[in-house]
């Protein structure tokens, strides 16, 4: 069976680079499932989770906003955050969420608020993913 | 001829200097490791982004984004990314020489780092903005610089924006380089190959594929292009920081080595002088004794 090469890179590191069977992305207008031989597509993703199907198993990653290039053989994802479900530290994410909320509450300049907002979304995405899979 | 006391005093002072440069070397090498890691970690993202953008612009068909518009270059902005502090060898000298080469009467300057700001002020050139960045550059800092450059370009105040920064090649080699930031045209790889040239090689989009866009191309590109620029500036800041700490580490190491060599030479001279004094005294005593004996 044909496979897709999934590549996920963030400014900090290359998070993922493997052959997979299918990817589900959090597109701007809802979830998007990508199989091999997909038509070439450029798209954007938003905060949410990526589901990677590989060898009959599903793996989850929390991701931030970003851009995706899809060709028939490859899915390249550029995002500001990507973290595997197993690597999410719930305590730290919760702390980060509180800190970000506090900073937003201080009503700083536009730039600062935007940064805090992004940090808040990152931690929320991680928490959502983690909590849902615990139940 | 210096007395033994003078030489002893000099040895002491050189020793102190060596201690200080040694400490600075340690600090720089710790920072260097972090900065190098950050610069290297960002490269896969930058490379992937280049590929995606090349494919996106090639696949977008007729669409032209304002940031890619080529105008006749009447006014140009030059962004200089320098260090804040000195004591890093020839790093800033090389950087500013590169900047001086790129100077035209109509050039306006945007600087990041205090050394570049001082340089622009000293030469009484037109400074339009000064930014700073921390030891570990933050994306927000890069975004501020990039946003400012985009505004200059889009408002028509300048028709092109270039950046001078120091590209990190390895601990011993850093290279000052000029890159065109705006208008966005040819895509250039930011990371050099092992020999340190490269970096100007064009990235070819793969077999020209027709991409579908979702959201539509104009909207997607107007999100992607500014982000690309922001990231490009961010990577340059990282490279500049890695270069700075590497250069400082090497400069401080050679300062320490020099001081040690100097201490060795001075100690030798001191011992010679001391021995000469003893011999002289002995000579005096024996000649006095002989004079008395006779």
Could you explain the architecture of this structure?
The complex is a heterodimer of chains A (135) and B (294). By secondary structure, chain A is of the alpha+beta class. Chain A folds into 2 domains: 4-85, F0F1 ATP synthase delta/epsilon subunit, N-terminal (ATP Synthase, domain 1, Sandwich), CATH 2.60.15; 88-134, Single alpha-helices involved in coiled-coils or other helix-helix interfaces (Up-down Bundle), CATH 1.20.5. In chain A, 30% of the residues lie in helices and 42% in strands. In chain A, the strands form 2 sheets. Chain A has a 5-stranded mixed β-sheet with strand order 2-1-9-8-5, with no helix packed on it. In chain A, strands 4-3-6-7-10 form a 5-stranded antiparallel β-sheet. In chain A, helix 1 (90-105) runs antiparallel to helix 2 (110-134). The model of chain A has no long low-confidence stretch (mean pLDDT 86). Chain B has 294 residues and is an alpha/beta fold. Chain B has 2 domains: 17-23 and 249-288; 26-248, 3-Layer(aba) Sandwich (Pyruvate Kinase, Chain: A, domain 1), CATH 3.40.1380. Chain B is 57% helix and 13% strand. A 5-stranded mixed β-sheet of chain B has the order 3-2-1-4-5, with helices on both faces. In chain B, strand 2 (107-112), helix 3 and strand 3 (127-131) form a beta-alpha-beta unit. In chain B, helix 4 packs across helix 5 (217-293). Chain B is elongated. The A-B interface holds A 7, 9-14, 27-29, 39-44, 67, 69, 71, 76, 78, 80, 111, 115 and B 41-42, 44-45, 48-49, 51-52, 55-56, 59, 139-140, 143-144, 206, 209-215, 217, 220, 223-224, 227, 231, 234.
Helical proportion of chain A?
A: 25-40%
Q: How would you sum up the major sheet of chain B?
A: 5 strands, mixed
The oligomeric status of these chains comes to heterodimer
Number of discrete domains of chain A: 2
Q: Tell me the CATH architecture of the largest domain in chain A.
A: Sandwich
Secondary structural class of chain A: alpha+beta
Using DSSP, what is the number of strands of chain A?
Answer: 10
The second-level CATH architecture of the largest domain in chain B is 3-Layer(aba) Sandwich
Name the shape of chain B in a single word.
elongated
Element-by-element helix/strand order of chain A: EEEEEEEEEEHH
CATH fold-level name of the largest domain in chain A: ATP Synthase, domain 1
What portion of residues of chain B is helical?
55-70%
H/I helix tally of chain B: 5
The name of the CATH topology of the largest domain in chain B is: Pyruvate Kinase, Chain: A, domain 1
